[in-house]
């Protein structure tokens, strides 16, 4: 009996051991392995390392781009340009200085003139001019104002000149208030940027308005700078210089056309 009990106990223990061993093996395969948590120092280092690396990369990229961009504006090496310093002034800047380094000004003018007619088109004005010149031999030209075209002549600045102009026209056969009338006129002040040469030429023209000489006027027209040859009065100025007479009204009409030219510079 004692031997039988020992055998049973041994078998029971053996069964218990086998069950424990199988349980241990199942736990070995079924229980997930727990990952080892990183230490506090490693976590902090990884948090700071990525932003730092990203900032360095961005700095390199943008830094290289800015250096490339601003390299185009770097002054050339004098040695590469034949030892001469490179000027940053362009041809346009030089031309602007040449064209606009003086300021021509002229005060506004008030005077009287002889009006021969007023028309709505240049064709009608030119037709009337041709008629007056052919019939009476009177020097005239036209000027535009507010869409109307005035056929005019004479530059009158005193009552004496007014009386002399009326007498001259009546002696030519024109009738006052029928063929002509004396009209007040006003021109605005002038201010424009010009070159030194243009300034000198314009000042001579301004002097001729106050103290007229037909010979000086012709010479002045011949010296006209190209800039002013686009003026609508240039053709009429040239025609007046070709007038044969040296009489009073011819000179006063040249003087008047000159005043309009200076007041409406192109």
From TrEMBL:
The chain crosses the membrane at residues 52-70. Keywords: Membrane, Transmembrane, Transmembrane helix. This is SPOR domain-containing protein. Residues 90-99 have a biased composition (Acidic residues). InterPro entries: SPOR-like_sf (IPR036680). GO terms for molecular function: peptidoglycan binding. It comes from Allobacillus saliphilus. Residues 80-104 are annotated as: Disordered. Signal peptide: none annotated.
């Amino acid at each position: 009996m004692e031997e039988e009990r020992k055998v049973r106990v041994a078998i029971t223990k053996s069964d218990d051991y086998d069950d424990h061993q199988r349980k241990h093996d199942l736990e070995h395969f079924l229980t997930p392995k727990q990952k080892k948590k990183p230490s506090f120092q490693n976590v902090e280092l990884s948090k700071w390392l990525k932003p730092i690396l990203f900032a360095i990369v961005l700095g390199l990229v943008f830094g290289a781009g800015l250096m490339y961009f601003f390299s185009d504006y770097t002054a050339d090496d004098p040695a590469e340009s034949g030892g001469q310093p490179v000027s940053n002034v362009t041809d346009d800047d030089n031309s602007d200085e040449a064209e606009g380094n003086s300021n021509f000004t002229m005060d506004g003018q008030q005077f009287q003139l002889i009006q021969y007619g007023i028309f709505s088109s240049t064709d009608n004005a030119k037709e009337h001019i041709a008629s007056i010149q052919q019939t009476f031999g009177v020097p005239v030209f036209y000027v535009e104002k507010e869409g109307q075209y005035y056929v005019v002549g004479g530059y009158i600045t005193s009552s004496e000149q007014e009386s002399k102009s009326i007498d001259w026209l009546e002696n030519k056969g024109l009738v006052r208030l029928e063929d002509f009338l004396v009209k007040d006129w006003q021109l605005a002040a002038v201010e424009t940027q010009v070159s030194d040469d243009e300034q000198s030429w314009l000042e001579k023209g301004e002097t001729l308005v106050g103290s007229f000489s037909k010979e000086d006027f012709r010479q002045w027209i011949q010296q006209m700078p190209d800039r002013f040859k686009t003026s609508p009065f240039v053709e009429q100025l040239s025609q007046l210089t070709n007038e044969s007479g040296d009489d009073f009204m011819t000179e006063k009409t040249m003087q008047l056309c000159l005043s309009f030219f200076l007041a409406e510079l192109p």
